[in-house]
Amino acid sequence: MSKKRRPLQEMAINITPLMDVLTVLLFFLVKIFTISSMDLTSFEDVHLPTLPTAHYPPEEAVTLAIGTTQIKTADGVISQLTAKKDVTSSDLDEDGKTIKALLSYLQKQMDKRNEIFSNLEDKSLLPPGKLMLQVDKDIPFQLIKKVLYTAGQVGYKEFQLLSEKEE
Amino acid sequence: MIKKKKKFVLPESEVNVVPLMDILTTMLFFLILMASTANFTIIKGSSTASGSSTTTAEEKPRFDLGILYKSPKRIEVFLGKTKGLEIADEKGFNNFRKKNLYAFQNIGHRKVLTGTPETIFQKTQELIQGLKVYFPAEKKVTLALGDKIVYESIVQLMDKISKAQDPKGEIELFPEIVLQEIEPQGDKS
Q1: Quick one: pLDDT at residue B188?
Q2: Given 3.30.420, 3.30.70, 1.25.40, 2.20.130, which CATH number is that of B46-51+60-181?
Q3: What is the ipTM of this complex?
Q4: pTM across the whole model
Q5: Sign of CA pseudo-dihedral B63, B176, A48, A89
Q6: HSE of A30 in the Cβ direction (CA atoms, 13 Å)?
Q7: Is the CB of B24 less than 8 angstroms away from the CB of A22?
Q8: Which among B112, B188, B120, B109 has a CA at the least distance from the CA of B160?
Q9: Highest mean pLDDT among A23-37, A65-79, B49-63
Q10: Which of A143, B11, B53, B96 would suit a FRET pair with A8, their CA atoms being 20 to 30 Å apart?
């Protein structure tokens, strides 16, 4: 009598646990991932200070990075800094406070914003422009005040000073 | 011959999970790549250099608290005249004022704090916290900075001025901070 060979059983992978894990991971990542159109690029020569407590999360704003050697925007390098971490006198306007290239860049950004709200007759109803500053921790206020002054000429009156939160 | 009718059995419905798996896996990889581990925070401020004025044309008395940070080891705290302002517990404030502040010229009161950068920030916060008890509704403070003060110190001082930690939780101090430069002449020192 020949023995009947048992047919090989079909292998079935149980994917239910895998589905569970993937779904949980997905919800976790969606929760921690903030979908924002704002791009927080980290710059090589910008070492942010750390703070022990959190204040506010970064908001949508025009971003400016002040590193140890350059001032940068989304369009590229605005100005080179001297060894004393300040702008050169040739980059300044006659008043000695306004950074010419920065003024031009911020004016363009403000014009873009105003274009979006071109239907609004009274532009003063718009909230003031916001500027986010990513500044290296060793940059002196001597340079920062020039940036603030320049931004103020264009209408940027609210500032977000970026830091890292201590872990 | 009697034919037995086979009972009609509905076929087992099958859900095809393959496309769902594809989407979930793709989303998972996308989110892992996009999730940032850096934890950023911002401190909000405004600036008189930007044209936002701290002075108003109103004649009514206003709360005027200023902090002068010219050198890393010295902070001066100024409180303008308080006559006409809403003070919680006026008697307590007078005692606080006598213990902690000194009358300065004719513009109000002042306190000079000295020490290392770590201790000086803590002392400033304690003084500010003491003032907040008597002016709970006030939120604005002016921070005048010297040219040599670095960004790290600015942000750390702003952190101390805007809020404090307490066993009960977080206390809001003066979160509306107006930055300005120290004027070369006529600064309050």
Answers
A1: 43
A2: 3.30.420
A3: 0.77
A4: 0.77
A5: negative
A6: 8
A7: yes
A8: B120
A9: A65-79
A10: B11
